[in-house]
Sequence to fold (305 residues):
Amino acid sequence: MSLALLCPGQGAQHAAMFERASPYPAAREVIDAASTVMARNAITAAAADDRFDNAQAQPLLCAATLAQWQALREALPAPLLVAGYSIGELAAHAIAGSIDTAACLQLAAQRAQVMDQASPPNAGLQAVLGLTREPLQALCEVHGVYIAIANGSDHFIVGGRTAALQALAEVARTQHAEIRTLPVHVPAHTPLLADAADAFADVLAQAAVNAPHLPVLAGVDARLVRDGETVRHSLAAQLAQTIEWAQVMRQAFERGARVFLQLGPGTALARMVASAYPCCEVRAVEEFQHLDGAAAWVHRALERR
Fold:
C-alpha cells in the first residue's frame, strides 16, 4: 500500500476541529483524555480565544489528530508511513505505536511547558516565501534569526525575537519576498530553545517509549525512526533544530507513498505535498464533510494507483 498519513503542526486550530470525529466512541476517548490533561473541556478549549497559546495548542492538536485517527483506523488500510510537522511528530508516534494516546497528550502538555519556560520574551515565527535558502540564510545571520522549518525551495519558516523578525522582514520585502506572521509565540526549532530541547529530553527519558510499529520519518533529517531511543532523540532534537519538511516529503515519495491523507485541522500539509508532487493523490480530512468520505476517497485513490 502507498498511503502516507500526515499530522499537522500549530496554526490551523479552529472551533470545529473535533466536529467530524466526536460522534465516534473511540474518538471521544481521546477527547476525554485530552480534557483530563488540559483540566478543561477540550472541545470548549478549541473554541476559546487562547487556543493558539502554546499550552493549549499542542495538546489540542495532538488530540484532534488522534481523535480522527482512532475514528478512521478501522476503515483505512495500514499506512506505508507516518510523518508529523513540528508537534505533529509527537502525534505521528502515537499513531505508529511508539507511545500510547494518554502519554502523547501528557507529553504534548509537557513539551509546551518546557518551550514556554525556555522561550525569550517577544519572540515567535514567521513565514518567508519567495527567497531561496542561501540568501535567506544570509539575512538570518545578519539579523540573528534562524531557519526553523524548510518547507520548500523558496518557502521557509524563520524564528527569533520579534524585533529581529521585523528587521529581517523589512529587508526581505525589498527582495520581493512575502512575509506572513504566524500565531506561534515561541521561536520553535531554533537554537533559542536549546534549553527546552534538553528539558524535553529529560521528560522523554522518563516516558514509556517503544519502537514504532509503523515507519515514522524524523522531522530533523527525514530518516526512518526504528527504535525507542531514536524516537526520544528526534522528538527532543526538533525543538532546537530546523525541521526539514521538504526532505520529509521527498523521502515519503521516494519510499513509495503516492496517496497522502492529512489528519487533524487545516489543509496546509496536503497543499504542500500536492504542490511538490502533483503526480500524487493528496487530500486533507477537513476537505470532507464526514470521515467516511475521507476513508472512501483513500480506498478509491489506492485502487487508482
The longest strand covers residues 123-129. The beta strands are 3-7, 81-84, 123-129, 146-152, 155-161, 178-181, 216-217, 224-225, 259-262, 281-284. DSSP finds twelve helices and ten strands in the chain.
